[in-house]
Amino acid sequence: MLASIVLASSYEIKPNKISVNLVDKLGDVVTKERPEYPEKLKKRFELESGSKIVVEFEAISSSKDHKHIPLNQAALVLTSLDKTSQTSISSKFSEAKNSYKIIMNKLKIENHIASNGEYSADLVLGSFSEKTGAVYNLGVININCFKSSIEKSDHIIYGPKPEIFHTFSAPQKMVNPLVSVIYTALITIPFALFFTMLGSSGFLSAINKNATVSDYSFFGCILSYASLIISYFIGVKIFPILFYGLVLAIPTFIFGQKSLFK
Predict the structure, then answer these.
(1) Which band of pLDDT confidence, cut at 50, 70 and 90, is reported for residue 47?
(2) How many angstroms from the chain centroid is the CA of residue 108?
(3) Lowest CB count within 10 Å: 4, 57, 103, 230, which one?
């Protein structure tokens, strides 16, 4: 009788039907493994931002009948290899499958783990019905879901930030010269048509006889538009060019109305 009591008390919790799956952000299983207790993981599991690691298992007794044991504690404990940080993730019990599931992602560990690295993963199991619990070391899981921290200087300098300069690749990749010639021709054609229209209407000959301030101002605005286009090709700053072009449109319209419709 005493021997049977001693044997009954020596039984322990044994994780069974263990499955470890690495699931990406699209929900596809990238890596999966079915280790047998007490074997460790043989494949590499790396937790990245957006992915998750799902651990499922059953809890049975190490006795001959292998009965299922209701657990009061079932958690996955992550410990950094340098022993500087540690966190645990609780499990959820499924009555339909009579199994436990642990989901590990960035959201569940970011409050306790703030750095990437290799972490030892242990299943910690306990039950009131069994005197001896179980600590099952699954192996090492690589966590790579945190951005690299940038060291900040203690001395903070306040002021405007330096201008951002664009660095072109070397050697520079230029467009075909034929494309440049065609584009330049398309830009100059409207000006050529404009002055041709003025010459055919007799405006240029008339302006030489009785030119007014509005006439000269109108031509000045047209030349200013030409200079804006040239400055755009030189400086490649589109937003200042658009602003000055919008401002220049108002006097061009006013002086053009007075010069062309006398």
Answers:
(1) very high
(2) 19
(3) 4
